Amino acid sequence: MSNATQLIHSIPVDPLTGAISVPIYQTSTFVQEAPGVNQGYDYARTGNPTRTVLEDVLAKLEKGETGIAFSSGLAAIDAIVKLLETGDEILAVDDIYGGAFRLFTQVYQKFGIKVNFVDTAITENVFDAITPKTKLIWIETPTNPTLKISDIQAIAKIAKANQCLLCVDNTFASPALQQPLSLGADIVVHSATKYLGGHSDLIAGIVVTKEKELGAKIKFIQNACGAILSPFDSWLVIRGIETLHLRVKQHSENAQAVAEFLETHPAVDKVYYPGLKTHPGHDIAVKQATGFGGIVSFTLKHDTEEAATAFVISTKLFKLAESLGGIKSLLCLPSQMTHKTIPAAKRRAAGVADSLIRLSVGLEEAKDLIDDLQHTFDTCKKQLQVKRKRQPAVSDI
Q1: Is 133 a known active-site residue?
Q2: Where in the chain are all domains bearing CATH 3.40.640.10?
Q3: CA-to-CA distance for 318 and 332, rounded, in angstroms?
């Protein structure tokens, strides 16, 4: 049976009524027969039936033991970091989501948790940078926003040999394309706001663990700190997951077409998409995933923030906005939006140029999206030509 079919039928029919849609249990508490005697639930922070269905479905989808649904992706990351103690170290991918960078460096470093950033697309960098104090290796693959690919299986072996946890942010690939736990990772984290929800209408985070014991620790942290996902948002994610495989397939097909168009465009300097054979991580992506996802990034030959800003405010179908993974195409300028919290020098060193533009390729017709990009290139070219004509000659100054 295919993964898509298994997924659809892992979402249970309501045993009480036969409802084919999971009920939303919008309640804060549950009546008990006697103190401590209940039907599996006592207070909605600790557990809610709608949230439980989502957590179980995600655990099956990621081939893990325990799923935990959080109020946001960053809340999920925060709970994982709380597994650590003062003096512990995190070894993290250098091209990291700006929110995770901010949490690691501006919140947890002051509590004595050190973070070392390396390019994990080169496995040797992980081996060289790990120390006896390293307790958590944190990777995104593909990364946000330069789409670097790390070898999950190889890094998992390093983590195991050094008795530390490996966490993979699987947001960009989604479990429809990649299951890191099957490749040796200990923890998978998602911003369910993105492809899992899929419709840009919720904020949510997911953690799935390979082992029950580790899952119980994170569940304890969630219950103690309270960053739970509401019943309604849990239902929204369940609804999104029902079409995940179908959506991700189309996202990937459209993104491949857009990437191939950009790769041949004279105004483009570099294109970042693992589905291109020119991508340095293409072979590893083929090995560990069944597709390449819906995110494409590129830089302009006119490599200035001004040129990139002019581009991102001129598209029609691609909407300028934070986030990704929805059915409508979005674009953003990471240097000024998603990754602005990362110091410019560190950001550029990780490959996030000032002119780098990130596309979240939606479910529109690929031709329409390519036409929108081409029209934008033409518009920006004309604007640049007009600007140059207006500039005074050197002899006039």
Answers
A1: no
A2: 3-241
A3: 9
